[in-house]
Each structure stands twice: as C-alpha cells, then as structure tokens.
Amino acid sequence: MLFGAHQSIAGGVANAIIRGKKATCDTIQMFNKSSNQWRAKELTQTDIDEFFHQIDETGVTVATSHTSYLINIASPDETLNAKSYDALKVEMERCERLKIPNLVMHPGSHVGSGEETGMDRVSVNINKLMAELENGTVRLLLEATAGQGSNLGYSFEQLAYMMNQVEDKTRIGICLDTCHIFAAGYAITDPKDYKKTMKQFDDTIGLKNLHIIHANDSLREFGSRKDRHEHLGKGHIGIEAFRNFVNDNRLKKIPMILETPKGEELTEDIANLKLLRSLVE
User: Fold this and answer.
1) Nearest to 224 by CA among 154, 281, 141, 124
2) Segment 60-98, tens digit of pLDDT
3) Which of 98, 130, 200, 203 has the fewest CB atoms within 10 Å, measured from its CB?
C-alpha cells in the first residue's frame, strides 16, 4: 500500500513533492492551484518541468489533486454554478498537464434546492465536462462527505446515484474519507462493523470504483455529521479502524492519504505515517 499526505504547493507545485519527501511520503495529494481563490495562477512550462524533475529526483509520486473548496457544481445559483464548472474544468486541464491521474472533489451542496435536484446538477455538469474534455485521462473522484449542512455525498447511495449517471465510467470514481464516513454514521472501528460497512460500499458502489482513501481520525463523535480531522489514534475513531484498512488485501493498491493538521517541519505527518505503516501485519 502507498502511504502519503496532502502537501502544500506554497512557492510552486514542485514544492509539494519536496515536502512529500521530507514527510516520508510514498505519494502525495496536492492542490494544483490556490484552494481559496477562483483565480488560477498560470502554470508555466518551467513550473511543469521542475515538477517532473522533483518526481524523478525524489521518487515521490502524486496520487491525486484536490479541487478548490469554492467549487460547488450542485449549486442552484446559476452564476455560482457556471463559475464552479469553469473552475473545475481548469483544474482538470491542469491535472492533465501535470499528469496527475485523479482529481478529488466534494460533490457540493444543494443549498435548499433538494438532494436529488442537487445530485442531478452534479451529474449533468460532469457529463458536460467529460464531453468537452473528451481526450482527457484524469479521473474525477467524488469524495464521501460527513453530511454537514446541505452537503451531498454523505451516503453510499448518494455517491452511487451521481456516479451511475456519469456516461464515461472510466473517468469517474470515489474517494473514501475515514473521518467523513464515520461522522456520517458508518462504523469502521470494530472489525465486524468495518466488514459490514465495506460490504455495503462494495454492494452499493463497488470496490473497483474506489481509488483514493483519506486516512483521518475524527475530532467529533460517531454520526455527528461534522467534518473535523484529528491525528490518527487521537480522535473518536481510534487506531483499530486504520489497522482494518491497511490490512484489507482488497485495498492494497489504493493510496492512503493523510489530511491531518501539521506545522512547517511536517513532524506530524512523519509520526502519523510511521504509525500507519506500523499497523501493517
């Protein structure tokens, strides 16, 4: 299993690779532009060349990018929806240029317009995107959410509903976040509960459609519907859940990415990754 963490692109996209090496990552997740701005700084050929050079130099791969948090292709507001669509398209194109195979996206919020209506908007936008980027290879991954507010994607059924409406099945998939599914009410700590939850996932979505796992403990309690990440073993999920994941042979080819708090020295990532690796039996 490949273990890694989300790394900052501050100072340039190549710096995420350098930070990944420092944090003892096999692979990383990164933003491909600023996560809290609509504007995307130009990706120069120099940026791209240095990015690939650092991958070659360090051996650290990039498993996935993550979209900006501003994007909401489920929004009923036509202006915001169009702006979100355009931003998502730019991010997909940037992933293509950087040869990043996956792009993780929160499905979005229906903002009071209704869950099914919101999910339909998501699927329509994704189909339009895939048609406009018909020669693309990047896979868009819908991330399981905690279900806070009017956020979509907090149940396996909702994720399946959106995914099943996407016409190009080769370019759509799922990212499972341990904190999010725990907060949404899926038990994963006890081995029996873990098996039941993963069977439900396989029956509803299919494990073949799972491409990234976010490994995060939860600051909030089971079923809280609150998305608050905590260091592994320090939250309500507990360390045994992560033992279940890393020893599930069905998941051995799926990158496991930390999204836990950290300082500039990345000592927290180093400690969490050491702990994750120690759980492999």
Assistant:
1) 154
2) 999 999 999 999 999 999 999 999 999 999 999 999 999
3) 203
* Per-residue tokens: 114: 């209704």
pLDDT, one tens digit per residue, over 236-260 is 999 999 999 999 999 999 999 999 9
Report the distance separating Cα 224 and Cα 185, nearest Å: 8
Total domain count for the chain?
Answer: 1
Of the candidates 208, 122, 203, 216, the residue with the CA atom closest to the CA atom of residue 170: 208
Is residue 200 within 8 Å of 156, Cβ to Cβ? yes
Element (H, E) at 240: helix 239-246
Query: What domain range is 177 assigned to?
Result: 3-278
Nearest to 237 by CA among 167, 166, 187, 170: 187
Q: Each residue of 171-197: b (16+ CB within 10 Å) or e? A: bbbbbbbbbbbbbbebbbbeeeebeeb
